[in-house]
Design a protein that fits this description.
With 470 residues, the chain is of the alpha/beta class. The chain has three domains: 157 residues, Rossmann fold; 239 residues, pyruvate-formate lyase- activating enzyme (Alpha-Beta Horseshoe), CATH 3.80.30; 53 residues, OB fold (Dihydrolipoamide Acetyltransferase, E2P) (Beta Barrel). It contains 13 helices and 23 strands. Strands 3, 4, 5, 6, 7, 8, 9 and 10 form an eight-stranded mixed β-sheet that branches. Strands 11, 12, 13, 14 and 15 form a five-stranded mixed β-sheet that branches. β1 and β2 form a beta hairpin. α7 runs parallel beside α8. The longest helix is centred in the C-terminal third of the chain and has 24 residues. It is globular, with a radius of gyration of 23 Å. The N terminus is likely disordered.
């Protein structure tokens, strides 16, 4: 490998040959997917062509997650797979895993660059440095002093202090892998100021920071102009949007501005912490026909003792009151939660307390996770690590409970009408769609994607509703 180092106003970059095509593979949450879309935008603006076949790519960008050990394993496996299938391509690894453990990644054969979240803004210039003048100024550039840019096993590392990072990459992302090209996701907030004892995310994404309101509105206007009807807004801690701006602003103001200043037909809100579901936000979502009736409210556990060990900022009774208030305001809304099992010190009694708490609330779905120890977090050093087999069994129990709740919720709509948006996937003369309240509805007949329709539900088939357009 022949490389030279360039110096300039920004960080030093390694210039290695010429690249013409790129392939981006994303792992993890909506925020990571949105980061990947922004990286793709930057590379395309420098004249590189996107390819859907990694074997045709001269550079492959892996945008990683590190929320669990399984996520790290998946990233390492992907690096090896890509190097095996396309040994001539240059592999750039970025994202949360790259920020947390750059030297670990740099030691894997085939990796050319490791770029932490602190320097994702520099990826396009790193890959295609001769075309930097073509960059879109709207993407911004946030210089962070480089802590490490050094070769290791032929790899260049670019990782800096994530807490000095103050800007936010934003570009709409589309769920192509799921056949959903109709509901772009727009990240409007990144980072987190909470310090949950199990979570590594603040240390790999930095402090909470928000996309300014005018930029949010510009992005949504552009999507509306391109005929998209539903947009999902997301963030690492979405409900904290605006608190870092000058002057500080509230999440409810963002929602009102989107409703008042854009022509978007439907806005969907992704995960928002329970303390940020204010009465004002609940009222806005409930009263506006243009906001999807869908509330995802992370829980983690229904055990008060375990919540305290997790350093979560609410108690079970606070959470329950919030969920019941959302249900009272929106009787047909989807209400979901993230739930963790097997946290260190979780006893059988703690788990049963949590199970009963969850059973008592009107959830329509759950995302159940098994605790995974993350190096550098307080919980990794806690006593009472739960046996993996016990964790797996508790996960199974909550998944079964979630399935029961979802089936009961679905059954309540048989014979009724729902508003739904058609997706791209079609099968067996049916078209997949997503309802206002986050249910998969297969419509009889073939319908163009990205259409808002009214449908009558005929029956439930497993976890899917079947219906006709009316």
């Amino acid at each position: 490998m022949c490389a030279r180092t360039r110096r300039g106003a920004g960080p030093r970059v390694a210039i290695i040959g010429t690249v013409t095509t790129f392939y981006v593979e994303n792992f993890g949450c909506r925020a990571t997917q949105a980061d990947g879309a922004a990286i793709e935008r930057g590379l395309a603006q420098r004249g590189l062509s996107r390819t859907r076949d990694l074997q045709d790519a001269s550079v492959v960008v892996l945008n990683t997650c590190t929320v669990t050990s399984a996520a790290d394993h998946d990233a390492r496996a992907a690096i090896r797979r890509i190097h095996r299938k396309n040994p001539d391509c240059r592999i750039l690894v970025t994202g949360c895993y790259a920020q947390r453990a750059p030297e670990e990644i740099a030691a894997i054969p085939g990796v050319t660059w490791v770029v932490g979240n602190s320097h994702k803004h520099d990826i396009a210039g790193l890959v295609a440095p001769e075309q930097m003048e073509a960059a879109d100024p709207a993407l911004g550039h946030d210089f962070v002093p480089v802590e490490s840019l050094r070769p290791q096993a032929g790899t260049m590392q670019l990782v800096g202090d994530i807490f000095a990072h103050t800007s936010l990459m934003a570009a709409p992302v589309f769920g192509e892998a799921a056949g959903d090209l109709t509901r772009p996701n727009l990240k409007v907030q990144d980072g987190c100021d909470n310090r949950c004892s199990f979570c590594i995310i603040p240390f790999v994404r930095g402090q909470s920071r928000s996309l300014p309101l005018d930029q949010v509105l510009r992005e949504i206007d552009a999507l509306v102009e391109a005929d998209y009807r539903e947009v999902v807004i997301s963030g690492i801690n979405l409900g904290r949007w605006g608190l870092d701006l000058d002057p500080p602003q509230r999440f409810a103001k963002l929602l009102r501005a989107i409703l008042d200043k854009t022509d978007l037909e439907r806005l969907r809100i992704s995960s928002v912490e329970p303390m940020d579901w204010s009465d004002e936000v609940i009222e806005l979502v409930a009263r506006s026909p243009r906001i999807a009736k869908h509330a995802h409210v992370p829980l983690q556990t229904g055990s008060d003792r375990v919540l305290r060990r997790m350093h979560r900022k609410y108690r079970p009774w606070h959470y329950a009151a919030k969920i019941r208030k959302i249900r009272a305001a929106m009787p047909a809304a989807a209400i979901g939660a993230d739930v963790m099992v097997g946290f260190p010190g979780e006893t059988e009694s703690d788990f049963e307390e949590s199970r009963q708490f969850i059973a008592s609330l009107p959830f329509t779905y759950l995302h159940v996770f098994t605790y995974s120890s993350r190096p550098g977090t307080p919980s990794a050093e806690m006593a009472g690590q739960v046996d993996p087999l016990v964790r797996r069994e508790r996960n199974r129990i909550l998944r079964e409970l979630a399935a029961e709740k979802k089936r009961a919720f679905l059954d309540g709509f048989v014979g009724g009408k729902l508003s739904t948006i058609t997706l791209s996937a079609q099968q067996d003369d049916c078209t997949e769609s997503l309802t206002d309240n986050y249910l998969k509805l297969m419509l009889r007949g073939r319908h163009a994607p990205n259409r808002m329709l009214s449908a009558r539900v005929e029956r439930r088939d497993g976890d899917v509703l079947i219906g006709n357009v009316v």
